[in-house]
Specification:
The complex is a heterodimer of chains A (87) and B (736). By secondary structure, chain A is α+β, with helices and mostly antiparallel strands. Chain A has a domain of 57 residues: Alpha-Beta Plaits, CATH 3.30.70. Helices cover 22% and strands 16% of the residues of chain A. A two-stranded antiparallel sheet of chain A has the order 1-2. The radius of gyration of chain A is 18 Å and the shape is flat. Chain A starts with 9 loop residues before the first helix and ends with a strand. Among the domains of chain B are: 162 residues, Dimethylsulfoxide Reductase, domain 2; 104 residues, no CATH class; 174 residues, Beta Barrel (Barwin-like endoglucanases). In chain B, the strands form eleven sheets. Chain B has a six-stranded mixed β-barrel with strand order 24-29-25-28-26-32. The longest helix of chain B is centred in the first third of the chain and has 15 residues. Chain B is globular and about 85 Å long. The chains are: A alpha+beta (87), B alpha/beta (736).
Chain lengths: 87, 736
């Protein structure tokens, strides 16, 4: 399955479900779509009515690389990683 | 340029664009509407668009914004950490390279009029071949002045002056001529001469970016199939803002992408209604902020600036408050604040707060507000509003939506009385903002309100009646009838199918651009600006972009020596999940990031010997003014507004070290450090009202903005466009 396909093709899904034995599910989050807006955190709070300070779903920002000299091209990356509780 | 005011900007048609440069546009994090643009960029441009595989996004911003994070996510895009306030050098540098290397669309720029444009298959044409006099005021050469006949513009066809409408083919692009002893040059030549004033190496030194960056980006930009350079308020909210915006639009004109499919588009046409108002009054006279007014005083030059060339609907608010304090050009009697929180949001807000506290400057003040915000708490009368979303009304959309849209806004908490149609709030004394304004208008006896206000038989007693009438005219017809499609659908939306978005011309596809003039001339030279004088110097302004960084009201650059003592530059940005002053009191949103920090680069942290969590003190060249008599009322209460004030102009900040900020910057995000909206204890009578310390968390940078070195009581403002210098003013930072 290529990275550029947004949805899982039917035959891949069918082949996966046809496998014998207990099923193990994973949650695939396409990080390229996550822009770090934190709307999922708020949506989860609204849905589960969690008290302040308790969030089942948070988004962490990971900063990689260092940029100190403006005369060199910066090599910095920031990744937004949603951390759902998988419930 | 016949584009909307530079302040709002146009956007890119993301889906069909293959090379995008965003300058100071906090895309995916801010802007109208953040979600729409984000989806267009992340999904349509990068995944499903026809050129998704080669799409490159270059983010030009002093901060590694979320857009830069996404641009570099797959290793294709790029972040160009420009020094704040150097945008003019970057943009004009790109223009220079494009002109010097003949990488512009030559055939397009030689088109002199609509007829030739149509013949060659273009929908737009430019003023690049029109002649402009080089003696001031620099206006276009008219047919009359050239002795040819009636015409606004004159072009050269093979060296012969011709009225622009009579040219049948291409006109001379890079040319000049002397008529009656006066030299006239084409706009193109003037632009070329202007762009050549500095070398690319000088530009890169001012921008503080690696050598060769501008040439490389300009090369990539002009070789792409559908390149766009877009902006939002980053390049515009500066003292060179008008010219930065103009330079950016010119770059788009040079590659012929205005209104094109995959180009720089205006989009966002709204459906419009109307309330017919006979005998309606219109504002008259000179505005206190001197926007759109021409200085006509006795002295040859004015003592305060006048913003004659200012073109947008809003005013020059910081100038309003300093003018009000000085009684210039006249004293005001009353002030009504609505939909605004200037005591918190104005750069150098001590002037705003002092004006509100000064009975001579503002003897009577009112505020319509949903919370006891900073400004409201300083006003004499408070008229409690509902939330801005809780009302009857409507909303358009913004680019990049290319079809016609209008959303109807209706209250969801309160109810509407079925007979009188009055809004019934859940708290007894609340009214919607529109209702309050209509009540005030009726009380003042203004025409076009109350009985028969909207014409015979049309009463305008509340906002429901106003909007019901509005939705019966022009593009609408249903009114607020709950059974009709307008209310049922929640608005009116055009089918966004491709045939409603694009139309094809021989030279390629254009966006249909509903509601505007489709076939139009694009002006690169701003004759109107060039005929205005800076009222304080008496000198004419320039019709073409200028190489400038920060200038004061006399258009002089800041003294470079100031950066020796104040080596840091102020910088701010907006969090994705906050508005500037309306959301911090929502504790859910506040819990995402409980406080902000002053962000600095690791290189500066090493120099200052600080690490994340340490405290520093900061002052600006003008923050010591707080101690002077100019701010005596403000100073008395400063511990209430800013508990981090240390005295003698120093403020205390907590540091976060991050490579997301370029070196030399002191960056503090907005929305934090509140002192109103329930951030402090407040009382109604003796009764304490709801408040929470969490609303007050974090820091606020606005008192640290530098004032204009000439006027000394106001932030630096663009003499042409009226925008404040929002970034890059000097600061001194020391470890505590």
């Amino acid at each position: 399955m290529s990275e550029r396909e947004t949805f899982m093709p039917d035959e891949v899904l069918a082949a996966s479900l046809a496998k014998k034995g207990p099923k193990q599910y994973t949650l695939w989050v396409d990080l390229e779509y996550c822009v770090g807006c934190h709307a999922c955190t708020m949506a989860c709070k609204a849905e589960n009515n969690t008290p302040l300070g308790v969030d089942y779903n948070r988004v962490t920002e990971v900063e990689i690389g260092e940029f100190k000299d403006p005369q060199k091209s910066p090599d910095v990356r920031v990744y937004f990683i949603p951390m759902p509780c998988m419930h | 340029m016949n584009l909307p005011p530079y302040e709002i900007g146009n956007y890119c048609d993301y889906e069909h664009c293959d090379y995008l440069i965003s300058v100071g546009s906090n895309i995916t994090q801010a802007d109208y509407p953040m979600q729409t643009r984000t989806r267009y960029l992340q999904k349509f441009a990068k995944r499903t668009g026809p050129d998704a595989k080669k799409f490159k996004h270059v983010v030009v911003d002093p901060r590694f914004s979320n857009a830069a994070a996404k641009a570099t996510h797959n290793g294709v895009g790029e972040w160009v950490p420009l020094k704040p306030a150097s945008d003019g050098y970057f943009l004009l540098g790109m223009i220079q390279w494009i002109l010097a290397n003949n990488r512009f669309k030559k055939e397009y720029l030689t088109i002199p009029n609509e007829l030739v444009a149509k013949e060659k298959g273009y929908r737009t044409w430019t003023d690049m071949t029109y002649l402009v006099g080089i003696t001031e005021p620099r206006t276009f050469l008219s047919g009359k002045n050239a002795g040819l006949g009636q015409s606004d513009y004159v072009v050269l066809v093979n060296g012969k002056p011709t009225m622009f409408q009579e040219a049948t083919g291409k006109a001379d692009l890079d040319a000049s001529i002397t008529i009656k002893g006066v030299e006239y040059k084409t706009v193109f030549r003037l632009l070329k001469e202007r762009a050549a004033e500095k070398s690319l190496a000088e530009c890169e030194a001012v921008c503080d970016i690696p050598a060769g960056t501008i040439a490389r980006l300009a090369g990539e930009f002009t070789s792409a199939k559908r390149p766009v350079i877009e902006m939002f308020r980053g390049p515009v909210q500066q003292t060179n803002g008008w010219y930065n915006g103009q330079a950016l639009c010119i770059l788009n004109i040079l590659v012929d992408n205005i209104d094109r499919k995959g180009g720089y588009i205006s989009g966002h046409a709204a459906y419009k209604g109307d309330v017919k108002a006979e005998n309606g009054r219109k504002p008259a006279g000179i505005r206190v902020d001197t926007a759109k007014a021409i200085y006509n005083g006795k002295k040859p030059v004015s003592t305060r600036p006048w913003y004659s060339a200012y073109s947008t609907m809003r005013g020059v608010t910081p100038n309003f408050f300093s003018n009000v304090r000085m009684g210039y050009p006249y004293r005001i009697k009353a002030y009504l604040n609505y939909y605004n929180d200037p005591a918190y949001t104005m750069p150098y807000n001590q002037e705003t707060i002092e004006a509100l506290l000064d009975l001579k400057a503002m003897p009577l003040t009112f505020s319509i507000d949903a919370y006891m915000g900073e400004t409201t708490s300083l006003c004499d009368y408070v008229l409690p509003d509902t939330e801005y979303l809780e009302r009857i009304g409507g909303f358009k959309t913004y680019p990049p939506v290319k079809t016609q849209v209008w959303g109807v806004r209706q209250p969801v908490v309160g109810t509407i009385d079925p007979v009188t149609h009055d809004y019934k709030p859940i708290r007894p004394d609340n009214r919607t903002g529109d209702d309050i304004l209509i009540m005030l208008a009726k009380e003042c006896g203004l025409p076009t309100f109350g009985k028969d206000g909207g014409g015979k038989g049309v009463d305008l007693n509340n906002s429901w009646q106003f909007w019901d009438e509005y939705y019966k005219h022009k593009d609408f017809g249903d009114g607020l009838d709950p059974e009709k499609p307008l209310v049922k659908m929640g608005g009116k939306f055009q089918n966004p199918s491709p045939q409603n978005q694009y139309e094809s011309w021989p030279s390629g596809d254009y966006t249909i651009f509903h509601g505007g003039r489709k076939v139009r001339m694009l002006m690169t030279y701003q004759e109107k600006v060039a005929t205005y004088k800076n009222s304080m110097t008496g000198k004419y302004m320039d019709g073409l972009p200028l190489y400038r960084t920060i200038v004061d009201c006399l258009e002089q650059p800041l003294d470079p020596a100031i950066y020796q003592e104040y080596p840091f530059q102020l910088h701010t940005w907006k969090e994705t999940f906050h508005t500037q002053s309306r959301t911090m009191n929502n504790l859910w949103l506040a819990s995402i990031k409980p406080q902000n920090y002053a962000e600095i680069n690791p290189a500066d942290a090493e120099r200052l010997n600080v690490k994340t969590g340490d405290w520093v003190k900061v002052k600006s060249p003008s923050s010591e003014m707080i101690e002077s008599d100019q701010y005596q009322n403000y100073r008395k209460n400063i511990s209430h507004y800013y508990p981090n004030y240390l005295g003698k102009g120093w403020f205390k900040f907590q540091i976060q070290v991050t490579s997301r900020i370029r070196p030399g910057l002191f960056s503090v995000s907005q929305s934090y450090g509140r002192f109103g909206a329930g951030a402090r204890k407040w009382y109604m009578g003796d009764k304490e009202q709801p408040n929470d310390q969490r609303v007050a968390a974090g820091f606020h940078i606005n008192p640290l903005y530098m004032t204009d070195p000439v006027l000394k009581n106001r932030v630096l403002i663009d003499p042409v466009g009226g925008a404040t210098q929002s970034y890059g003013t000097p600061l001194r930072v020391e470890r505590i």
